[in-house]
Amino acid sequence: MPQLFLMMVGPSPLMVIVEFFFLVQSITLEAPLRGFPVWLHNIPGMVFRTTNKAFMDEMQNFTTMIVDMVKKEKLFASQGGPIILAQIENEYGNVMEPYGEAGKTYIKWCANMAQALDVGVPWIMCQQNDAPQPMLNTCNGFYCDNFKPNNPNTPKMWTENWTGWFKQWGGKNPHRTTEDVAYSVAKFFQRGGTFNNYYMYHGGTNFDRTAGGPYITTSYDYDAPLDEYGNLNQPKYGHLKKLHDVLHSMEKILTYGNISTIDFGKSASATIYTTGEGSSCFFGNGNENSDAKISFQGKSYVVPAWSVTILPDCKTEAYNTAKITTQISMMVKKPNEAEDDPSTLKWSWRPENMDDFLLKGKGESTKTQLVDQKVVSNDQSDYLWYMTTVKFRKRDLVLGKNMTLRINSTAHVLHAFVNGKHIGNQHAENGKFHYVFEKDAKFKSGRNVISLLSITVGLQNYGSFFESVPTGITGPISIIGRNSDETIVKDLSAHKWSYKTGLNGFENQLFRTESPSKWSAESVPLNRSMTWYKATFKAPFGNDPVVVDLLGLGKGTAWVNGNNIGRYWPAFISSGDGCSVKCNYRGAYHAEKCLTGCGEPTQRWYHVPRSFLNAGDNTLVLFEEMGGNPSLVNFQTTRVGSVCANVYEKNVIELSCDRKPISAIKFASFGNPNGNCGSFEKGTCEEINNAVDILTQECVGKEKCSIDVSTEKFGAPDCGGAARRLAIEAIC
């Protein structure tokens, strides 16, 4: 099977199609967009994504460089290579309106610049309804069946079918149902689609500081068919695989067939693709509540609500998006058996040295104003110190017992210190990144040092003029003095401010395994902010993916053997409402529809690739910003714990424990069983032959087994005319 590629250049990263089923289907391993480099923002006069000479010069330089690299390796299809399409810009149409006429001029310039590079393959623009010719405009979203290209000669292409959604700190776990993803794909092809590409097909991890945002989590699992660790996300993976197998079998008819449509009313329709060799049919039902009964060519069919039935020969149902005939895999975490006591690591610690900042207010540069963090730090670190010195006379009117420090902040997280004492911290919540911090503070006559630590958690990377979104401490900053008669405000915004990017521990690379710095194993503190912790551990046995459970910690960064595994923030708990035990796949999906994890840490487990691990001892280093309890930290593996199925008769179900043997059949019943995976119960009718015994004989001890769900195998229980089902739960 040939490997074909789609290249995205300009403001978007390289996107690689790693598998090509046929002309109209593809899978992508595109990395989540991290955005533009901050140095680009800091070029004088720079404005992104508009008719700004500085930006257009840099974009043309970058695009030309990428194209020249690809041409040098002869990778374009016009050179005999695998790249069949190239993309310029990314979803600009979604944010274009505020740019006005300059935006329209810019997108025309993008098209002309790209076309002049003469790559020999078509260029595409996604979400760009006014894409200039010969650019091909394409669709991104949860659904693209209603999308129409702006040129009738352009194929209908779906460049990003969102299989789930990303997660943000303080948020819950988003899920998009398997049935709905399959429905969106089948509906797209029913309505003339020619190209479907998944975003994401394989989830991933934002290691180090690569998470965008603000507030995108370290995990970018995305509820994708392949999860963050590379495990099959069943049933999503298997159900989509079966869908594409059916579509693949219809390739010739879908590509060359004439299309006709029958409207049955109430959102039900039939689409027939016909060639001289035969016909293939799609029966669609977009009704959210009612099944559709369809009569077609003398036969009757029932199409469940919000589903599509595919009949490759227009007679026999081969697939329905709402009928899952693939196993459900239940993932579990297992303790680290390589450790004698996997729940207890031996810790040493050391404080972050902040004396120069807290007591001296000593930085690297000074300004008589508050400066955006992006400008000062150039994205070299999440951390930026803002420091100033304030002198009071003994009888200064602002001095008194009731004094506060008030900071208007756009820092994602803010820590405030006065004369070396930590007076408090605050972070943005609920999507509001501009807040007012005000805490009691003690000032004295004479010299006072105010030290503010601004922390970013991923920079803005989407939206109109996103580069102008302020970051850091923009002010004003005031000291408030209150007495019985009046309130006095002393504005410090125009004071002389000293700036220092980063923290000493990062500069001294305390996270390196061979770091010569001194660590203490005595009196390891708990719930202490700005503290470094270190422990050793043994790599878990086997090949299962490894995670570290950081429950109990506050916020910070973690390293394994010097490899940065990303930002952690298990202390950020999601709200307690808005989750659903069971999600109804029917009806249009949106990112808030199917949520789990209410009242829990946004992210508790963090991926540790086995390539980061040594055969012997390994080192974990934590930098804890807010204060936490490292004694709860432990390493685990993630694997399939059990597999389930709930399948109608006349289907074949395959059970697999992902290269591990099936050890037992916990439940099996053929008839009308109730419940869900993990809580199945027998119904009012049941098989004549013992299903548990049959499945034990056919499956236990094997890595996978196939079961023909039929009355010949299990007997024919009388279920009053209702369709019979086989429910199974097998232990891995």
From TrEMBL:
Q: What is the lineage of its organism?
A: Eukaryota, Viridiplantae, Streptophyta, Embryophyta, Tracheophyta
What's the Enzyme Commission number for this chain?
3.2.1.23
Task: Specify the domain of life of the species encoding this protein.
Answer: Eukaryota
Q: What class of enzyme is it?
A: hydrolase
Molecular function GO labels: beta-galactosidase activity; carbohydrate binding
Q: What species is this protein from?
A: Brassica campestris
Q: What is this protein called?
A: Beta-galactosidase
Spell out the GO cellular component terms annotated for this protein, sorted alphabetically and separated by semicolons.
Answer: apoplast; plant-type cell wall; vacuole
Q: Tell me, which GO biological process terms does this entry list?
A: galactose catabolic process; plant-type cell wall modification
- Write the record's keywords in alphabetical order, separated by commas: Apoplast, Glycosidase, Hydrolase, Secreted, Signal
Q: Which family does it belong to?
A: Belongs to the glycosyl hydrolase 35 family.
UniProt xrefs under Pfam families: BetaGal_gal-bd, GHD, Glyco_hydro_35, SUEL_Lectin
Keyword Signal among record annotations: yes
Report the PANTHER family cross-referenced here: BETA-GALACTOSIDASE RELATED (PTHR23421)
Task: Please verify whether the record's keywords include Hydrolase.
Answer: yes
Q: Where in the cell is it found?
A: Secreted, Extracellular space, Apoplast
List residues of the SUEL-type lectin domain: 647-732
